[in-house]
Amino acid sequence: xxxxxxxxxxxxxxxxxxxxxxxxxxxxxxxxxxxxxxxxxxxxxxxxxxxxxxxxxxxxxxxxxxxxxxxxxxxxxxxxxxxxxxxxxxxxxxxxxxxxxxxxxxxxxxxxxxxxxxxxxxxxxxxxxxxxxxxxxxxxxxxxxxxxxxxxxxxxxxxxxxxxxxxxxxxxx
Length: 173
Description:
By secondary structure, this protein is an alpha+beta fold. The protein has five helices and five strands. It has one domain. The protein has helices at residues 2-16, 23-37, 83-114, 151-158, 164-167; strands at residues 45-55, 59-67, 123-130, 144-150, 169-172. Residues 9-14 have low confidence and may be disordered.
């Protein structure tokens, strides 16, 4: 009898637990993909599609991998990339970093406003991993940028009640 009660209690808990609808995450994934692709006339290269997950009790997390600038590839006909080309690619990536950061901030605001199923006290996180070639000088440049904020506070920032800089935590590795 006791075993039946435990099984029934567990089943009732699972049945009553709210289910998160993935549709909102998919819309934000596509939105971030499009935002990254439109950031420059020579678009950033989205290495893979953005992925979003909802972690109950934590919030929504979106990740993407981006190459901020294209450059010539090594080949049998061009085994070594000239230093001038590598310097040009580095400069382009440095110029695009602030643009990418702004796009990530805007994505945080948009996700906070559209993901109604994420409780106000949970986090919205956007993480972008940056791709570098083995022969590139990536010193002083991040390999990953993470931005996060509590959904309710992000909504306040979107509505102009608080400064976005006070509610977004930015980490670069």
